[in-house]
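Lab notebook, bench 4. Still working through the backlog of constructs that have no structural model yet. Next entry is a single chain of 91 residues. Request: give me the structure tokens for it.
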Amino acid sequence: MVAVGNLRSIWTIAPDEIEDFTDLQNRFGQYFGRSWEDVMVGGNRPYSYYRDWDAYLAVEGMKENGSLMLLPDLSKDLITEKKEIYQTIIG
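Model written out:
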């Protein structure tokens, strides 16, 4: 599935600044104004899964693309529409 949206904000934090999972969830909520549970798909994994993450993205206006689309097709369309493209590696 390909979905598109607009980047709203980026929260960066050094992993060693976080004390534990509760601290991460609280700081996340303070920054984004929404609770971890409301936003994070798969957010119920153990803290060890998130412990080394150092950036979180907020995307608004997400829309699913109704057809099969590959990344080069999406990029071409966005360039044609003079949209900014952010290439983000998540993993």
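Notes after review: The first strand starts at residue 3 and ends at 12. The CA atoms of residues 2 and 67 lie 9 Å apart. Flag for follow-up if needed.
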